[in-house]
């Protein structure tokens, strides 16, 4: 069978990783790259670096990866849809919900595979966690807490921490539990002198009643990527930096020391760190998207799901700006 012809637009920090994976992917040939700013990381290899999406489409593509700044996603995605080219667009899908809706409608209208690069869904720790939750191993789910903190990434200039880092947590939380957001309440801070927020604290609730909490910033000297799910039988901790998943079980042995029991609450049980396979999330994401283009039954992050994430992110920003809780159903989400 003939290999799929893939293109890549955007050769920055994320684009260089996409180029590496595309070149190593079975059944795929990287046939064209484009970036009006050139090739700062030298990833083009023997390919000419084109200046625009029209030139890239002109080489004949089956699909294209869009790894440009968010502000250009809508324009580039609509061009690909009009040309009949499947697309994997980096997250967030677009700079606002209106643009994300246009992209979603354009790809669905012509039956193209349109996917969003929410790479955390392909982290081995979160994939294993989701499977265990779906199997009922935690019992009733009470709460999901995420912490995503680290130093400021100089590559980000067009959005704040909510739409850059925060969209990871919005997407993975709804996906892991299998329930959309019902409401959010947030506070933001502006500490680095930029026009966009660089810190956010969000509390929310999913439609199934699960309580959520997200702490996100790029002001911290340490890097942290943690998801904690607490439920009837204990708590899972997914460390997505190291792709580790740990289970803290509720204890079944009564605490005889009454003073200690008074402070501890739920008694402590066994702690297990699971041995899980750890493939590279970006490679898994590409394999799933490739298979979807080939017509196989795979679970890509759809553009409609990406639209919902952008809409929730905008609700978070509205909540912080207006100082009130935002109900998502009132926005039609």
Automatic annotation (TrEMBL):
Every Gfo/Idh/MocA-like oxidoreductase N-terminal domain range: 5-118
GO MF term list: nucleotide binding
Gfo/Idh/MocA-like oxidoreductase C-terminal domain segment(s): 131-328
InterPro entries referenced in this protein's UniProt entry, alphabetically: Gfo/Idh/MocA-like_OxRdtase_C, Gfo/Idh/MocA-like_OxRdtase_N, Gfo/Idh/MocA_Oxidoreductases, NAD(P)-bd_dom_sf
Top-rank taxon, per record: Bacteria
Family annotation (Pfam families): GFO_IDH_MocA, GFO_IDH_MocA_C
Protein family (similarity comment): Belongs to the Gfo/Idh/MocA family.
Protein name: Gfo/Idh/MocA family oxidoreductase
């Amino acid at each position: 069978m003939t290999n799929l012809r893939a293109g890549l637009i955007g050769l920055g920090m994320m684009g260089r990783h996409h180029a590496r994976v595309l070149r190593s992917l079975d059944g795929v040939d990287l046939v064209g790259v484009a970036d009006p700013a050139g090739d700062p990381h030298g990833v083009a290899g023997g390919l000419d670096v084109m200046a625009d999406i029209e030139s890239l489409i002109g080489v004949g593509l089956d699909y294209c990866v869009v790894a440009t700044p968010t502000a250009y996603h809508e324009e580039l995605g609509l061009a690909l849809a009009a040309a009949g080219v499947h697309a994997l667009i980096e997250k967030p899908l677009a700079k606002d919900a209106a643009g994300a809706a246009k992209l979603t409608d354009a790809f669905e209208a012509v039956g193209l595979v349109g996917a969003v690069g929410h790479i955390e869904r392909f982290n081995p720790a979160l994939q294993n966690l989701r499977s265990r939750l779906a199997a009922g191993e935690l019992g009733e789910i009470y709460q999901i807490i995420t912490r995503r903190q680290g130093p400021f990434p100089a590559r980000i200039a067009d959005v704040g921490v909510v739409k850059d880092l925060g969209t990871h947590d919005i997407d993975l939380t709804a996906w892991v539990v299998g329930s959309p957001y019902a409401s959010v309440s947030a506070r933001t801070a502006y500490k680095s002198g930029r026009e966009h927020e660089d810190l956010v604290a969000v509390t929310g609730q999913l439609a199934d009643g699960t309580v959520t909490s997200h702490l996100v910033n790029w002001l911290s000297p340490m890097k942290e990527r943690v998801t904690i799910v607490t439920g009837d039988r204990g708590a899972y901790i997914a460390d997505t930096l190291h792709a580790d998943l740990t289970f803290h079980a509720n204890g079944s042995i009564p605490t005889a020391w009454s003073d200690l029991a008074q402070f501890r609450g739920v008694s402590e049980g066994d702690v297990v760190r699971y041995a899980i396979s750890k493939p590279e999330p970006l490679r898994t994401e590409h394999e799933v998207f490739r298979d979807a283009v080939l017509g196989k039954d795979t679970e890509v992050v759809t553009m409609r799901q990406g639209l919902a994430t952008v809409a929730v992110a905008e609700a978070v920003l509205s909540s912080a700006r207006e100082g009130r809780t935002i109900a998502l159903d009132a926005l039609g989400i």
